[in-house]
Amino acid sequence: MYTIKQASLRTGIDVSLIRAWERRYGVVHPERSAGGYRLYDDDAIARLRAMRALIAQGWSAAQAAAAVVDAPPSAGTASAGPSDLADISPGLVEAAGRYDVAAVDRLLDELFGRGSFEAVIDDLVLPAVRLLGEAWAEGRIDVAAEHLASGAVSRRLSALFSVGGTAGSGPQVLVGLPPESRHELGALAFAVALRRLGVDVLYLGADVPVASWVDAASQSSATAAVIGIVTSRDVVSAADVVAGIHEARSDLIIAVGGSSAGGIATATDVVVLPARVVEAARVIHARIAGRDGRRRRRSARPAVS
């Protein structure tokens, strides 16, 4: 559930306009907290995004509201499919190639607006990022253009991370990349997914030295550490991170994720996460919950005299 300020950040719609659409058109019907504050669920967020998209296409507010209200409740949160990506991604690459920031922002808003974060991140957003990388590798766009579009994605993920949870609440998990690894959008998306499950993510970012990983593991109360392995070149440095963390904190759950995660040696107890970030976040969340449950059961046992 999201406050009205969080809903505004997630939809790009001003707080006063959200209230107006609720009052005039009944587009959303937020719940209320114990203190009387509006609370919006993912379906409400999807309805607001849908209305914004229709108005951007030239619909009047009344027409857009009628269409959104009449839509099935699950329409805004259904899983996105490959056809959705095919509709948008070529335009995104083209817009990036001509440095059209407004068009890039509009297309990314449409990608993120196709459903909840969990519905779009693996099937739309990250595949679009990969297509941008492929366009650069094939020489169809310059690296500066690829960075421009990737930066726009990063800003959206960072905003979602900020509103996705509260620092200091829930179990702590370190998330980041090994030394010399800089392609962090997958790790950041994973951090968002994990934070939305109630985990206190300590996001370390890209290109984190082994000593810094060890320091973070030693000085924090983290329960787990997740290292992203994006390319085959990252495997050796990621293995160094795993070894360093394991030596400093043998009690820590250590996991690896990313397209080259399967290349790491698992002599120590390392969890290799699924490729899809939402599934990977659920695996870590379940591991943490299982460990916490075992600890509670042990502490509840009566002492043997």
What's the helix and strand layout?
Layout: H1 4-11, H2 15-25, E1 31-32, E2 38-39, H3 42-56, H4 61-70, H5 82-97, H6 101-112, H7 117-137, H8 143-163, E3 172-176, H9 185-195, E4 200-205, H10 210-219, E5 224-228, H11 235-248, E6 253-257, E7 270-272, H12 277-300
Parallel strand pairs: 3-4, 3-5, 5-6, 6-7
Antiparallel strand pairs: 1-2
Helix pairs in contact: 3-4, 5-6, 5-7, 5-8, 6-8, 7-8, 7-9, 8-9, 9-12, 10-11
Task: Report on this structure.
This protein is an alpha/beta fold. The protein has three domains: 67 residues, Multidrug-efflux Transporter Regulator, Chain: A, Domain 2 (Orthogonal Bundle), CATH 1.10.1660.10; 81 residues, Methionine synthase domain (Methyltransferase, Methionine Synthase (B12-binding Domains), Chain A, domain 1, Orthogonal Bundle), CATH 1.10.1240.10; 133 residues, Rossmann fold (3-Layer(aba) Sandwich), CATH 3.40.50. It has a five-stranded parallel sheet with strand order 4-3-5-6-7, with helices on both faces. A two-stranded antiparallel ribbon has the order 1-2. It starts with a helix and ends in a 5-residue tail after the last helix.
